[in-house]
Structure to design on (1073 residues):
């Protein structure tokens, strides 16, 4: 039955991607296609007093310059602009809506021309005068005092402050995580194809075509049939494409204004006006008894948001899942700044909050003179304390054990600066990772043809994670067909419903929808087969019939089988179509999480402070792994990003101008190949009989969580220096 | 990008004529820096004079035993040229420490000397910058200046020169061959780049209408005791926080000749004759290396975020001289620092 699920199956779309056959949003051609180039605001706050487009309009090849004062109508109510993942509080950004400037880099005009270079050139001729508002603020640390608490999912337990103050061993510290910007390889891009009569086909770089579809219909007052949104391939998204980005609005405005097809591709620099992981100050307080059991956990995060939306994620609260403590208090505060609204970025909340928590746990282990793993095992929580719920499964102990074994943890000298190799100090440390195992309603349609081929379709996106492949694997197994016979169609708003691809929920969600639709196919085929003349399946209960090797067979008795082709011909069916919306049974009696133990080896040149991350072992417990190959890639990608978060990534803002000064990937550092050495991914066996039929949890986020802390802790172990301000650059070690 | 005219120079004389006739023109060879700057509207040349096809791609031995390198030799070709690898490995190493393979394939030797600072304010036309817009002010002095200069700065500019190659050329005592409206001349590489002073918009001492035709390396190649060490924020593809080119000639443990040049710390490759004199005739010991480092960094001045560079440079100088003295040069492929 499981020829594919759980195996190392190569990506079904791999060939299309490496040969260039896979088309991305900015690559779709259209007749008489126009190109838009964005003019951005160069101040962080104020009003546009003057916007002179006359010189730009004189350029040969320029058709129009759209501005807030000159554009097709846009919806006037916030509800229209709220997409399915918009923050609850606030008023979503509306591009070219009015004369207000809310952040540096905000789009204030779109030059539309016959070609991109002409549009870009003409954009330099748009003259802008501002009525600047002197008081603006972009610095979290300077504005920390203005932070306001937002609603919390975790209620306080006991008296955390009192217990912390009374603890025998106490650790309290601030950890600073800077703003980090999304830099997926594919630029934000939209091609809007004008189909005539106001009908549009929109190719957009997005993680949710139906989210963008609803948004565009609302924003432009269109009927659902007027707009179709597609995003067949996405060159990395990681949260950046969860919400509709402004270029999709601008390209649509352009198409409606000029009644022609329009493409808008942002430059790398312009992407820094969009999604970012918010800067946070994470204040951790841990109180323990000398034996290493916890008395109190407090975690207060202070994060930035924009002045127009309250973006908040769960930075805090993860200790409820990980570490037993009778007292806890969690708080999330926001500081509203003159920046664009933050966005989800791989493991939003957890990547930052767990980083701080796990650094703090390491500091507590040092204070207690305990091995870091031993401390974590001493306060290991078998329940989610906030709701007092057991887990559907939690093999974190096995992650510690398997990871430690693979890493060679027993050869670690616990004393900082004790492990040397020539001029380098060697540091070994670890951290825990945790993420949620979410699942959402998804619908899938299967069309089985009499020739034994099946088309499986769903509106879900594959953002590079491997959704095409796992959908094909699950369908091939469920239908008993070779994977080559499965054709997967995704990311078209007209296909069966799916939420945005994010939160690590799509693997479980799409897989079970496939199973449900395949189940209807199986039942119908069983009926067909059993009613054939002298059927070998006559009298066999439909429940005992399986699809295997292209046949409809009695379970456990392969010889009693009818080929799918024969059965369908008998029923005079050329195609058999089933669509099913899968809802997961509500289970309020369990907590659902994925876990990891991350081990890091760093080597630090003692004199020069140059850091090399020479080894990472990541032991992950995430239920059943549908595809060990794409799964391993997911975790490796998370580890690489975690290395960047620890050592490299930082959006450098000049707060005098409220401008980002490293808005390019030469100066905004992410790891280069030279920064990446051995990465060992271990999937710990975790059989989960509660979470869902396949026991799948999802892998998108867990790979990054814990990695920055493991590296920071290893840097401490190597050097004896505790750097609480990320990224850990060599100047901080030399200070 | 702003529209511009394009001319292809037929020979060096034609390039000079075109340059003289069009004051707003720029030469283009590999374009690895100029095109970027044009995309950002930082450079807005009225005309590009394409010199990429001029016959300046030879590497020839000079009568005195040195090498003459045509201005259009690609950085990669230079780094992997057998005569460079054998006789001037310091230069090969410095080139390979810079940029990426793709950029080195495109970039010319002359263009490398002409690359402009990576100061973020220079790149952002929405902020003041004396180098880009003379008289508008320096945003870096009181702004984000972690990457900026500690030596030779002025109240107008604290930008650094980003080249790795130039640092090695400075240490090797290279000459720059220049052709211009009034004929040909040569200039020491160390005189080619300027300190910012009150005219930071002028990077070099090239006169109007002049073009680089070749780089000349003197016979002395320091083929045995050399090292180029580049310290940066990631292990590849980042500009230097501090880089050091060190070259020694030793008699046993005694230093017969010494050269040290620094990158990432000033508006030009930084050498100190005093420091080199202090090494000459002395034993190759940590004590003398430290003394040389102190002399090189004499007058170093920190701004808000770059103070670490002074101590980092001191340590890097000592380490690089140690690598050079022990004939264990820093590998550019293996990132562990020797």
């Amino acid at each position: 039955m499981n020829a594919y699920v759980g195996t190392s199956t190569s990506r079904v779309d791999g060939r299309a991607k490496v040969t260039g056959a896979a088309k991305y949003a900015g690559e779709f051609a259209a007749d008489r296609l126009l190109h838009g180039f964005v003019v951005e605001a160069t101040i962080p706050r104020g009003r546009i007093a003057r916007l002179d487009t006359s010189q730009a309009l004189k350029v040969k090849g320029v058709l129009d310059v759209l501005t807030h004062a000159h554009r097709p109508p846009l919806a006037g109510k916030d509800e229209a602009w709220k997409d399915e993942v918009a923050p609850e509080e606030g008023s979503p950004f509306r591009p070219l809506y009015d004369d207000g400037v809310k952040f540096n880099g905000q789009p204030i005009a779109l030059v539309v021309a016959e070609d991109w270079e002409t549009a870009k050139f003409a954009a330099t001729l748009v003259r802008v005068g501002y009525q600047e508002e002197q008081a603006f603020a972009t610095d979290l640390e300077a504005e920390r005092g203005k932070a306001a608490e937002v609603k919390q999912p975790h209620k306080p337990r006991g008296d955390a402050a009192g217990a912390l103050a009374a603890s025998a061993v106490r650790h309290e510290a601030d950890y600073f995580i800077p703003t980090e910007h999304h830099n997926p390889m594919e630029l934000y891009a939209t091609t809007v194809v004008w189909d005539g009569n106001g009908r549009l086909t929109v190719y957009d770089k997005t993680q949710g075509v139906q989210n963008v579809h609803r948004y565009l219909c609302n924003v432009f007052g269109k009927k659902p049939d007027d707009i179709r949104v597609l995003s067949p391939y996405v060159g990395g998204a990681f949260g950046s494409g969860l919400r509709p980005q402004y270029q999709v609005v601008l390209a649509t405005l352009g198409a409606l204004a000029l009644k022609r097809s329009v493409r808008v591709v942002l430059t790398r620099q312009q992407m820094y006006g969009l999604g970012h992981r918010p800067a946070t100050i994470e204040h951790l307080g841990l109180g323990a008894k000398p034996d290493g059991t916890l008395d109190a956990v407090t975690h207060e995060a202070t994060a930035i948001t924009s002045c127009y939306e309250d973006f908040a994620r769960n930075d805090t609260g993860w200790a409820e899942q990980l570490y037993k403590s009778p007292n806890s208090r969690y708080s999330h505060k926001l500081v509203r700044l003159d920046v664009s609204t933050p966005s989800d970025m791989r493991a939003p909340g957890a990547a930052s909050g767990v980083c701080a928590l796990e650094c703090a746990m390491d500091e507590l282990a040092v204070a207690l003179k305990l091995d870091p793993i031993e401390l974590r095992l001493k306060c290991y929580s078998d329940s989610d304390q906030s709701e007092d719920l057991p887990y559907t499964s939690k093999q974190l102990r096995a992650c510690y054990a398997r990871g430690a074994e693979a890493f060679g943890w027993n050869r670690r000298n616990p004393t900082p600066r004790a492990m040397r190799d020539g001029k380098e100090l060697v540091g070994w440390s670890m951290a825990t990772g945790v993420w949620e195992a979410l699942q959402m309603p998804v619908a899938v349609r299967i069309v089985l043809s009499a020739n034994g081929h099946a088309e499986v379709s769903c509106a879900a996106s594959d953002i590079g994670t491997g959704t095409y492949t796992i959908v094909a694997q699950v369908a091939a197994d469920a239908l008993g067909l070779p994977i080559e016979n499965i054709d997967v169609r995704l990311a078209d708003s007209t296909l069966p419903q799916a939420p945005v691809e994010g939160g690590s929920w799509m693997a479980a969600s799409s897989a079970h929808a496939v199973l449900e639709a395949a189940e209807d196919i199986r039942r119908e085929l069983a009926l067909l087969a059993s009613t054939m003349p002298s059927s070998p399946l006559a009298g066999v209960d439909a429940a005992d019939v399986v699809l295997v090797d292209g046949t409809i067979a009695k379970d456990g008795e392969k010889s009693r089988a009818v080929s799918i082709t024969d059965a369908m011909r008998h029923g005079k069916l050329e195609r058999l179509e089933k669509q099913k919306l899968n809802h997961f049974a509500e289970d309020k009696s369990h907590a659902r999480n994925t876990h990891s133990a991350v081990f890091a080896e760093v080597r630090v040149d003692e004199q020069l402070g140059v850091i090399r991350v020479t080894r990472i072992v990541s032991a992950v417990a995430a239920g059943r792994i549908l595809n060990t190959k794409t799964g391993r890639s997911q975790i490796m990608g998370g580890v690489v990003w975690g290395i960047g978060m620890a050592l490299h990534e930082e959006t450098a803002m000049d707060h005098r101008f409220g401008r980002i000064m490293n808005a390019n990937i030469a100066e905004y550092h992410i790891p280069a190949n030279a920064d990446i050495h051995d990465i060992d991914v271990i999937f710990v066996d975790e059989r989960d009989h509660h979470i869902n039929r396949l026991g799948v949890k999802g892998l998108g986020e867990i790979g990054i969580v814990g990695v920055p802390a493991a590296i920071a802790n290893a840097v401490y172990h190597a050097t004896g220096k505790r750097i609480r301000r990320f990224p850990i650059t060599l100047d901080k070690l030399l200070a | 990008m702003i529209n511009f005219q394009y001319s292809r120079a037929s020979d060096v004389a034609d390039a000079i004529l075109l340059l003289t006739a069009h004051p707003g023109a720029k030469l283009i060879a590999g374009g690895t820096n100029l095109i970027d700057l044009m995309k950002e509207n930082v450079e807005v040349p009225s005309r590009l004079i394409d010199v990429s096809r001029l016959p300046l791609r030879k590497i020839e031995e000079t009568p005195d035993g040195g090498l003459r390198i045509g201005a259009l030799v690609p950085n990669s070709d230079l780094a992997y040229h057998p005569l460079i690898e054998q006789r001037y490995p310091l230069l090969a190493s410095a080139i390979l420490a810079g940029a990426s393979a793709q950029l080195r394939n495109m970039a010319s030797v002359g263009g490398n000397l002409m690359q402009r600072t990576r100061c973020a304010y220079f790149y952002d036309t929405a902020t003041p910058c004396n180098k880009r817009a003379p008289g508008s002010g320096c945003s870096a002095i009181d702004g984000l200046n972690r990457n900026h200069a500690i030596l030779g700065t002025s109240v107008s500019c604290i930008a650094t020169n980003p080249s790795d190659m130039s640092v090695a050329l400075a240490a090797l005592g290279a000459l720059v061959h220049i052709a211009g409206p009034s004929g040909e001349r040569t200039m020491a590489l160390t005189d080619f780049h300027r300190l910012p002073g009150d005219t930071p918009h002028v990077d070099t001492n090239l006169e109007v209408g002049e073009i680089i035709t070749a780089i000349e390396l003197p016979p002395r190649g320091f083929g045995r005791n050399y090292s180029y060490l580049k310290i940066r924020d990631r292990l590849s593809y980042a500009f230097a926080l501090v880089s050091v080119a060190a070259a020694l000639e030793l008699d046993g443990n005694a230093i017969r000749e010494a050269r040290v040049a620094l990158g990432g710390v000033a508006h030009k490759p930084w050498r100190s004759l005093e420091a080199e004199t202090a090494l000459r005739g002395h034993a190759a010991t940590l004590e003398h290396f430290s003394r040389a480092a102190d002399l090189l960094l004499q007058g170093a001045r920190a701004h808000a975020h770059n103070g670490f560079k002074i101590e980092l440079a001191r340590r890097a100088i000592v380490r690089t001289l140690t690598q050079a003295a022990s004939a264990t040069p820093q590998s550019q492929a293996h990132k562990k620092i020797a």
In short: The mean pLDDT of chain B is 97.
